[in-house]
Prior knowledge:
With 147 residues, the protein is α/β, with parallel strands linked by helices. It has helices at 8-14, 21-29, 37-49, 54-70, 79-94, 101-113, and strands at residues 4-6, 33-36, 74-75, 116-118, 132-134, 139-141.
Amino acid sequence: MRGFLIDTNVLSELTSPVPSLRVRAFLSAQSDLWFSTIVLHELNYGIELLPQGRKRNRIDSAISKFLTEYMDWILPVDSSVASQAAVFRAQMHHKGRNLDLADALIAATAKVNGLCLVTRNVQDFEHLPIDILNPWESALHHPITEA
């Protein structure tokens, strides 16, 4: 099977005091996991919003460890991803739907690199032509097809 692009909420789950067993099992069973630079932005933004204290330090430490371990599996936003994200946003605009820029860039990263997006927020991506997997439900959503 091809690889997986991990969304922010999946990584955030791993920093919770009691992470979902399904999410942990899914990630442990995979050998081809990828991440977007946009996810790094979202994680760091979340840390910056937290007040100083143990929780912030714990999460910051977990993110730093992640970066050290997975730096070679972080995909950049290049011109192909930027162009695909623009196509996705325009398609959704024409359908009367709003697609957040960060979500468009994450979805485009999955599409351009032939990866299945792993996220809890299926509803944010389900109208796009990408495979989506929710590890909390272990449900695979296939791309939409245009009539």
